[in-house]
Design brief:
It is a single chain. The protein has about 180 residues and is an alpha+beta fold. Helices cover about 30% and strands about 35% of the residues. The protein has a domain at about 50-170. It has 1 helix and 11 strands. The chain is elongated. The mean pLDDT is about 90.
Length: about 180
């Protein structure tokens, strides 16, 4: 009596189905890893942009200039404008008028005479406070408009969907 050794049709179908499931699951796994990598790159880009914006703001406030030649410091509750020394394309510094305000959901730094720079996205509001003087008894005020002086520090409160970011920027010493 002769018995053929081989696989039945059912056994072949089960093996093919299991192989197809493995390939399908592996494809989904690799797609998820790829999507997570793209999300990570987007988050890293956003974090780099925020860090660059904070560095630029710190340098801009530290190089602030106010006086008869430079111009006034104009600080309101929701925007601030002043003259700051900015690096030009020629490699030297020049005084430029800087205005920080929220425009269409973005924190914008308008640097005259150049274009505007977006410092933060998805901004619901901006609150600005100004420090009068150093010390434990020092007070913050909501407005500072002066042709000859600037505050000791500026506090920016950036409202977003997830909460409020509070940033403190010192201004160079006077005199």
């Amino acid at each position: 009596m002769r018995r053929d050794r081989g696989f039945s049709l059912i056994e072949v179908m089960v093996a093919l189905t299991m192989g197809a499931l493995v390939v399908l699951l592996a494809g989904r796994l690799f797609a998820a890893v790829g999507d997570a990598g793209q999300e990570l790159r987007a988050a890293r880009t956003a974090l780099d942009r925020e860090a660059n914006a904070r560095r630029w703001l710190a340098a801009t406030f530290l190089s602030l200039d106010v006086g008869p030649e430079a111009g006034p410091f104009q600080g309101n509750r929701d925007q601030v404008a002043f003259v700051s020394w900015q690096l030009t394309s020629g490699g030297w510094f020049a005084g430029h008028r800087v205005r920080l305000a929220v425009d269409r959901g973005r924190l914008i730094a308008a640097v005259a005479p150049r274009d505007s720079v977006t410092l933060a996205d998805s901004v619901r509001g901006l609150g600005v406070d100004y420090l009068l003087e150093h010390g434990a008894e020092a007070h913050w005020v909501r407005e500072w408009v002066s042709a000859v002086s600037a505050p000791v520090a500026v506090r920016l409160r950036i409202a977003r969907a997830g909460g409020v970011d509070t940033l403190l920027f010192l201004i160079k010493e006077r005199g």
